[in-house]
TrEMBL record:
<comment type="similarity">
    <text>Belongs to the beta-defensin family.</text>
</comment>
<protein>
    <recommendedName>
        <fullName>Beta-defensin</fullName>
    </recommendedName>
</protein>
<keyword id="KW-0732">Signal</keyword>
<keyword id="KW-0929">Antimicrobial</keyword>
<keyword id="KW-1015">Disulfide bond</keyword>
<keyword id="KW-0044">Antibiotic</keyword>
<feature type="signal peptide">
    <location>
        <begin position="1"/>
        <end position="31"/>
    </location>
</feature>
<keyword id="KW-0211">Defensin</keyword>
<dbReference type="InterPro" id="IPR050544">
    <property type="entry name" value="Beta-defensin"/>
</dbReference>
<keyword id="KW-0964">Secreted</keyword>
Amino acid sequence: MLQDHYSPLSRYKLLFLALAVLLVLDQASTGGWFEECNYSVGRCRIACKENEKPKGTCVGNKLCCLPVIKQKSSAFARNKK
C-alpha cells in the first residue's frame, strides 16, 4: 500500500502563498480594498449608508459618500439657554 506523503506543513505553505498574493494585489491596486474620494475622507459606494451623505461621484457612476458628523457644540449651546 502506498503511503500518503501529505504533510501538514504544505497547508501552511499554501496559506502563506495566498496571503502573499493578496498583499501584492492590495499594494498594486490604486484604491486598495475600497476606493476613497474627497481627499480620502469619503468612500466610493453604489449607495450611501444611513450615517453618510452623498457628495459628488466616483469612477463607474458610484457615489462619493462622506460620513455625517453631528455638531455636539451647537446642541450643547441650545440646551444651555
